Amino acid sequence: MVKRKMRIAIAGAGKIGRSIAGELLESGHKILLIERERSNFEPNTVPDADWLNADACELTALQEAGLQTCDVVIAATGDDKSNLVVGLLAKVEFGVPRVVARINDVRNEWLFTQTWGIDVAVSTPEAMVAGIEGAIDVGHLVRLMAFHEGRAALTKLTLPERDPLVGQQVRELDLPEATVLVTVLRGDNVIVPQPGEVLEAGDEMLFVSNNFPDQSSNADTGGPLWETIRKVWRRDAQRGLGSGSSNAK
């Protein structure tokens, strides 16, 4: 399946923002980097991206950037307050479909929710890249952390409204080998999944796998969704993103 190329705005052109931009450009997406600090405004470092020297927390700057034409906005600054403001403006004022935000201080993690316009929030540079690519690949798929020396992974999948899994029962899920659905978060409720539990749009499903599924695992029956999950895990394993005990230190 050919992926749709998207217009993605990144607020913050520091080391992390530029790294993310480079990876997304390699995937063929159109990138706009927004940076207010002159010291970080270096278009020559990512020449294939568009650049705007402006404060992404200001409405007029985002209007100049044409944020309403973006498919994804990434708040990647080193300041949590700025990332929250960018996320809220992107979602509320410009209706951006997907907002991804970086959490710098894990004590602020509770703020990074859809109340602030955030669809995907991660707390480390490595997880930021994985989370962005996961969100772009399948909507709301984020590999949260690895443990057991990288041999196990925790992944969150948020079901979009039109996802084919909506309306299915847990017993009908055709999971990759050695993968288990451990919980479903629905609003303020934590649900221990029972076989007859019916999945709803907006459900946050947390999976644990005790290894990175082989390419052949459930290849014929897993469908495109699970093939994407397997691809994300294999990619992160190759990058070594799962080498630590956790991505949320």
UniProtKB/TrEMBL annotation:
The keyword Acetylation does not apply. PROSITE patterns: RCK_C (PS51202), RCK_N (PS51201). GO terms for molecular function: potassium ion transmembrane transporter activity. Residues 5-122 form the RCK N-terminal domain. Keywords: Ion transport, NAD, Potassium, Potassium transport, Transport. Gene3D superfamilies: NAD(P)-binding Rossmann-like Domain, Regulator of K+ conductance, C-terminal domain. The keyword Chaperone does not apply. GO terms for cellular component: plasma membrane. SUPFAM superfamilies: NAD(P)-binding Rossmann-fold domains, TrkA C-terminal domain-like. Residues 142-224 form the RCK C-terminal domain. This is Trk system potassium uptake protein TrkA. It comes from Mycobacterium montefiorense. The lineage of its organism: Bacteria, Bacillati, Actinomycetota, Actinomycetes, Mycobacteriales.
